[in-house]
Amino acid sequence: MTQKDITFVADFLTEHFNEAPELYNRKGKYFNVERVGQYLKDEDDDLVSPPNTEGNHWFNFLKDSTHLKESPLLFPYYPEKSLHFVKRQMEGVIDQCLQKPADVIGKSVHQAVCMSLYKISQSEDSTPQLFKLPFLWNDKTSNLHYVLFTMLENSISKIHILRRHTDTSRSVSNGILAVEFGNFLNNSINESSDSRCYSCLDAHFYDDETVTVVLKESVQQEGKERVLAQLPLS
Known about the structure:
This protein is of the alpha+beta class. Helix content is 22%, strand content 24%. A hairpin with an 8-residue loop joins strand 6 (210-217) and strand 7 (226-232). InterPro entries: APC4, APC4_C. Residues 136-234 form the Anaphase-promoting complex subunit 4 C-terminal half WD40 domain. This is APC4 protein.
């Protein structure tokens, strides 16, 4: 260490770790903690070295404003408390604000339709993830809501499209259907149906009339092909 380093450390200790007899009756250490670290402690105790707010423009502005000083829209300031304490106070206020809308929205939601997608054995300890890739799309022009998803297990080469009217009292034809890719990219009719089989890696709506899918070859070999395809919804 250079003499400059030693002087820097000595100055730090002198400034922040002097004995403080006025704190002897307080819980914890008998010296001032480093001024930044005290704000990060997850404790409800007051700060050992609270900040000096004298000359702060914001506090002076609030003090001189009779309307803002009593405004319920301003979150109260706790100059003697750490950031963890303030964070918990703010979370409590936010939770209280969100509770009423959550109750109202929750009571307004009801089941429009129920479809059985698959069945699993009741004896299985852990439920396998068979439902994958749910992507939502809302066609505002036709007032239709779409859900794209794939099912694992034996239908890996299919993508399912669920379509519902945004008005739950109305129904649409072909509410759910599946598109199978399989070996549709084979170059000739003589190719084996197992040689070029494709499964869906991802699928999103490109616009109201087009679905974009990422396909991969299902064969177990190096250099699997990846295909980006755009399919007309019609």
